[in-house]
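Throughout our pipeline, every protein is held as a single compact record rather than as scattered files. Nothing more is needed to write down the fold, since each code stands for a local backbone conformation. For reference, a complete record is included directly beneath this paragraph.
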Amino acid sequence: MMGNADSGGQVLQRLLTAVNTHKLDDIVACFADDYLNETPAHPQRGFRGRDQVRRNWTEIFSRVPDIRARVDSTAGRGDTLWTEWEMSGTRTDGAAFLMRGVVIFGVTAGAISSARFYLEPVEDISGDVNAAVSRVLGSAQKPRVKETS
């Protein structure tokens, strides 16, 4: 369990409530002024500061007005809280919106001070595991075995 379990659990509950009630100011208040967001699979998406949190959620609420979030599981250690998320709704263009993944929060003094963000859109058109492995590895030819005489 987290050394700062009350703080981490409380800020997570505040964040979930704020997201599900669409209270932008309450969402932003969950984050430290110097909040650091890292997105390891997409490094250019990282940012610092809660002003960007406000911009992100303003856009999300305008484009997915019925968004709902849930956290399916959590685990904590020290000031770190691992969370498994699902966010769903309907975009304003009528398309379904569904994201799932993990966010690893750092919590300091009752506020989210950092996050490592692994939340991604759910898609089901890219094929099975074999297609995914091939796509990741590219289409390089198999190495030739050197023949000896």
Remarks:
- The chain has a mean pLDDT of 90.
- Residues 5-20 form the longest helix (16 residues).
- Helices lie at 5-20, 24-29, 50-63, 129-137.
- The CA atoms of residues 47 and 148 lie 55 Å apart.
